[in-house]
């Protein structure tokens, strides 16, 4: 009986749920708040006070208000790479673990980043080989981007919180210095309080309109699905609808990781892909 | 005096002439047929009967009719990679050397080919990593494409006139067999009588419309600037206006090679980049 399985809270269904719902429901007793007629706080206090694990979605705001209603929570598993919807400080204070999709999406996202770079360079008839490309954030995605750029003959440098001793690329501790010393920038960092508005929209559009920046390729926007209208008018801008990661293979990897993290949690084993910020 | 310099015949000005005309005219006595009011045959018999070297352009048809009017010709230098406008058999019979732009454009063209692949795969939400990609023609461009695809985690195989022993990719002697064993094909071969219509337009469009092919990225068309209208209606087709090679850096490389080939010829030295078909 489902009631005998460990409980898994899902407030909003993540995009990939459709692919794993049947698999999840064989292993867990799913508490789907979005399917209930009760208001969320009522649903949580009625059904989920004792829940230990939650599968989050990018639109679920896992903040202090929510966590206060879930005193038993010990794990937030998100099927995404980003954790910008999760209050990590609050989770840490409450002893709640956060797991992500790890590198499930990294290669596909890197492919699209490089594709956008080629589109932009090609539009402005710029050769890619020999160009100095700066990567902001040399994590999993940034490293995959760097690997590809090397094959194109680019000179790769990067900015990151820490210098990565094992990697041969030139490190800049300051993102402005990186920008000043490169022909193109690729932003691969996670969205955090520190990185939010690192690139200012008004400044970006102004630079593009005045030709101070030769072009831009964008897959992610601040207020999706809204995209700043000014960008559509610029023919040196390539827009992609935040879909870099949406391949069936990426989803499959992410789904396997979500399930592995949940099973590890309920077996008292370490997380497969803990968030380490 | 220009008259003392070696003669160089130019029937139609190649795109890059504007960048090297002054440099060429310091070294050669330029005979510009396109600037003359005389009809071409008259111009050639009047001014160019004794000319030994010619700078060709993609629109100059270097065929038997033309060569008959140029009995002294010993060199056709083309600033392009393609030689489909040149009757190579006729040149060989007349002992005329043909030089090309060598690999001046190869890296830029490879970049765009990979960019189109990413566009097409991304449009259909297909992962690139792990995909089997077949390269038709593993010459200079094909090899650069292969190098880039390896960084994306693709499994590269190829069809070519000859197996390249030094390269690690799987060889198919038959292009249909290559197509049957790969997820995507990239056409990198030269246009010759053997390769013309290897991909049939009607067949290509039919396959795209019926979803038998997931998508296509095209930078070159048979009757440029005309592009088959059916292609514009297909949202799984990415079109680029034969501009893959048009970066300033590629032109500069090509110009240097043209001049080096001409200088080598007039100093009785071997060509820098002879065409070897």
Automatic annotation (TrEMBL), chains A, B:
Q: Show the GO MF annotations.
A: glyoxylate reductase (NADPH) activity; hydroxypyruvate reductase [NAD(P)H] activity; NAD binding
Keyword Cytoplasm belongs to the record: no
Positions of the D-isomer specific 2-hydroxyacid dehydrogenase NAD-binding domain: 123-205
Q: Which residue numbers delimit the D-isomer specific 2-hydroxyacid dehydrogenase catalytic domain?
A: 41-274
Keyword terms = Oxidoreductase
User: Would you tell me the Gene Ontology cellular component terms?
Assistant: cytosol
Q: Which Pfam families match?
A: 2-Hacid_dh, 2-Hacid_dh_C
- Record has Metal-binding as a keyword: no
InterPro entries in alphabetical order:
D-isomer_2-hydroxyacid_DH, D-isomer_2_OHA_DH_cat_dom, D-isomer_DH_NAD-bd, NAD(P)-bd_dom_sf
> Into which family does the record put it?
Belongs to the D-isomer specific 2-hydroxyacid dehydrogenase family.
Q: What is this protein called?
A: D-isomer specific 2-hydroxyacid dehydrogenase NAD-binding domain-containing protein
